Amino acid sequence: MLSTLKKRLEELKVSDIMIPAEKVAHVQLGNPLEHALLVLVESGYSSVPVLDLDFKYQGTIAKTPILKNVMGMERYEMEKLSERKVEDVMNKEQPSVTSDTDFLTAIKVVIDNAFVCVVDEQNYFVGILTRRAILKEVNKSIYMNA
Ligand code: AMP
């Protein structure tokens, strides 16, 4: 049973289960932190992709580092949210995968990340792959093979 499960998962590609770019909330380089926080709070996500003006993937930005960045000695200095930019806080080290990355490789990436960005060969952003989508597919495959 395990080998059938593994074979089915091996055949899947990231493109089969990713959320396409047009449905993904994102922010852009140059946006003030105020805008990024608004997108994060309004979307309800703790982290979203950061793109450049050409729609190329640059990293991710999360709520907690934004709030830490504007924390003063005694209070959150909220006025700094409009002075500082996304690039002052974003995580530039987040890995990405491509649409034809196989599923088993993608699983390894989402062990440490709630989602991973999907890019084409020129680094244009095409979507995200979430832990939820991966777990749903693994769950489906287990019962298909039962
Ligand atoms: P999930 O596995 O569905 O809980 O999603 C994991 C993470 O992926 C979320 O916490 C968000 O950071 C990100 N995410 C999921 N869906 C979207 C979306 N439509 N737009 C932006 N980020 C998303």
TrEMBL record:
Family matches, as InterPro entries: CBS_CbpB, CBS_dom, CBS_dom_sf, Diverse_CBS-Domain
Domain of life: Bacteria
SUPFAM superfamilies per UniProt: CBS-domain pair
Residue ranges constituting the CBS domain according to the UniProt record: 18-77
CDD domains for this protein: CBS_pair_bac
PROSITE patterns listed in its UniProt record: CBS
Annotated keywords: CBS domain
Gene name of the encoded protein: cbpB
Protein name per the record: Cyclic-di-AMP-binding protein CbpB
Pfam families for this protein: CBS
